């Protein structure tokens, strides 16, 4: 059985998204995956090579003004060098985001990530959780408390620092990391069986 390599390519403006990136890392590592955290605002040539060698890339960014941060957009545009060579073709992809409000147009950021992945010929891995906190017996402490399917969506009060990231959102991000790593293992086993 091969060990999947998962890279988390993220930007964090105020530290909230970095907390989620670490949670995705922890979830993927729990499955035995090799995991790389890559801050795209400071990406190096060696880190680009890590992305190229990964089985899966998880994109993460805060949602600012209805989309991913400017720093993440700079990274996304720079991936065009990989697009020309199809370097990321058939890798798995997933995403996560955070904003100050419950909605905050986070879905648009996740859609931006999924379109980026599609342009690279990648296969999108959704969150795989039903919505939590959607009934009278639910709670804000449920996994996927904000009800996203496309990826992990988190909400942190804008007047709180990284310590204010909701524990349920951290647990949801960990679940995303586990799911991506497990799907990477399944995908690799399928390829090996051909």
Q: Could you give the topology of this structure?
A:
Layout: E1 5-10, H1 16-30, E2 34-39, H2 45-52, E3 56-64, E4 67-68, H3 70-78, H4 80-85, E5 92-99, H5 106-119, E6 123-124, E7 152-155, H6 167-193
Parallel strand pairs: 1-2, 1-3, 3-5, 5-6, 5-7
Antiparallel strand pairs: 3-4
Helix pairs in contact: 1-6
Structural features, described:
The protein has 194 residues and is α/β, with parallel strands linked by helices. 41% of the residues lie in helices and 19% in strands. It contains six helices and seven strands. Strands 1, 2, 3, 4, 5, 6 and 7 form a seven-stranded mixed sheet that branches. A hairpin with a 2-residue loop joins strand 3 (56-64) and strand 4 (67-68). Helix 1 packs across helix 6. It comes from Streptomyces griseocarneus. This is Flavodoxin family protein.
Query: How many helical stretches?
Result: 6
Outline: globular
Output the radius of gyration: 16 Å
| Helical proportion, percent range | 40-55%
Protein name: Flavodoxin family protein
Domain Flavodoxin-like: 6-151
InterPro entries: Flavodoxin/NO_synth, Flavoprotein-like_sf, FMN_Rdtase-like_dom
């Amino acid at each position: 059985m091969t060990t999947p390599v998962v890279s988390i390519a993220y930007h964090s403006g105020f530290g909230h998204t970095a907390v989620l990136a670490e949670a995705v890392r922890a979830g993927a590592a729990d499955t035995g995956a090799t995991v790389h955290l890559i801050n795209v605002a400071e990406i190096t040539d060696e880190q680009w090579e890590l992305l190229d060698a990964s089985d899966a890339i998880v994109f993460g960014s805060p949602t600012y003004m209805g989309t991913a941060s400017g720093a993440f957009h700079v990274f996304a545009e720079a991936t065009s060098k990989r697009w020309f060579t199809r370097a990321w073709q058939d890798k798995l992809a997933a995403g996560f985001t955070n904003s100050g409000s419950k909605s905050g147009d986070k879905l648009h950021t996740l859609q931006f990530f999924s379109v980026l992945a599609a342009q690279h010929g990648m296969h999108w891995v959704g969150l795989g959780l039903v919505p939590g906190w959607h009934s009278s017996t639910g709670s804000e402490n449920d996994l996927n408390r904000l009800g996203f399917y496309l990826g992990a969506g988190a909400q942190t009060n804008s007047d709180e620092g990284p310590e204010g990231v909701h524990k349920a959102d951290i647990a949801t991000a960990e679940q995303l990391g586990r799911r991506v790593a497990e799907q990477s293992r399944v995908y690799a086993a399928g390829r090996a069986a051909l």
